[in-house]
Write a structure and sequence with these properties.
Blueprint: H1 6-24, H2 41-64, H3 77-86, H4 93-112, H5 116-121, E1 123-126, E2 130-133, H6 136-155, H7 164-180, E3 188-194, E4 201-208, E5 211-216, E6 224-228, H8 230-237, E7 245-248, H9 250-257
Parallel strand pairs: 3-6
Antiparallel strand pairs: 1-2, 3-4, 4-5, 6-7
Helix pairs in contact: 1-4, 1-6, 2-3, 2-4, 2-6, 6-7, 7-8
Length: 263
């Protein structure tokens, strides 16, 4: 999230995008199933193109200091992105893949140009979440290319996993994702322990009537702790798997893990 991490983050985004394009640019896989619900590979490509092109509008509006509509909100995101992706099903593979490649190159140029002040101090209006510091947008691209690459591999039926570099970088953002996708506000308090990687450590999480709050801290005094490796944490937060090792009160863990709506 700090400017010193910019090149690391962008390097992993480039690597994940490169692997993604290698997987999708073939007629043999274009209509193959994925781990993203009813989406086929072509729908994943369409979704990332639609999402990336919305970022161009957002950055232009932020630089022009234009008024933008209020954030759409995350509860309706899944339904809307599904409609946006399926609307592009008739676009031929070569055309849509080339469109996304051009979108990616343009997006990276925007990210490369962000300086130390802009990285954390320049707010850009995300369509669903509202104004966010610009460093969130490379992270969103990592989510798109990293998690959706996992989706495509999942659709093959072969055993596989999530890239360590991608998972490590996404760990902090998964707490943000959980915070803003909390549905029912059933009170609970527990610890989340990330067991490996550069973002390993303990986080205290509390859910109440006003939503979810979290902070780093010792969790030894809590009745329930859920342990994750980075990849399992990311895939669980995105609703792709039910993972984690529960230590303590299973009822608390069960209540917590079922609080969230999917995007």
């Amino acid at each position: 999230m700090v400017f010193e991490g910019k090149e690391t983050l962008l390097g992993v985004v480039r690597a994940e995008a490169g692997r993604f394009f290698e997987m999708v640019d073939s007629d043999d896989v274009w209509e193959a199933p994925t781990g993203a619900g009813h989406w086929q590979v072509r729908d994943v490509v369409a979704h990332i193109a639609d999402t990336t092109e919305a970022y161009f509008v957002a950055f232009d509006a932020a630089r022009a200091q234009e008024e933008v509509p209020a954030a759409y909100g995350l509860p309706g995101m899944a339904e809307r992105v599904d409609k946006q992706a399926l609307a592009l099903r008739s676009v031929p593979r070569t055309e849509l893949v080339e469109r996304l490649r051009a979108d990616f190159d343009k997006m990276i140029e925007i990210f490369d140009a962000l300086g130390p002040e802009e990285w954390g101090g320049f707010n850009v209006p995300h369509f669903y979440m509202g104004p966010l510091p610009s460093f969130f947008f490379p992270a969103f691209q990592l989510m798109d290319y990293g998690v959706h690459s996992w989706d495509i591999r999942q659709g093959t039926g072969r055993a596989h996993g999530l890239s360590g570099d991608a998972a490590d970088l996404l760990v902090p953002f998964m707490f943000v994702l959980w915070k803003y996708t909390t549905g029912a506000k059933d009170p609970c308090e527990l610890g989340i322990r990330i067991t490996s990687g550069p973002n390993a450590g303990d986080t205290r999480v509390k859910v109440g009537p006003d939503g979810m709050d979290y902070e780093p801290g010792n969790v030894d005094d809590l009745a329930t702790v859920i342990e994750f490796d980075p990849g399992s944490f990311v895939l669980t937060a995105f609703g792709r798997s039910n993972a984690g090792t529960i230590r303590g009160d299973r009822a608390v863990a069960d209540r917590y893990l079922n609080l969230f709506f999917r995007i």
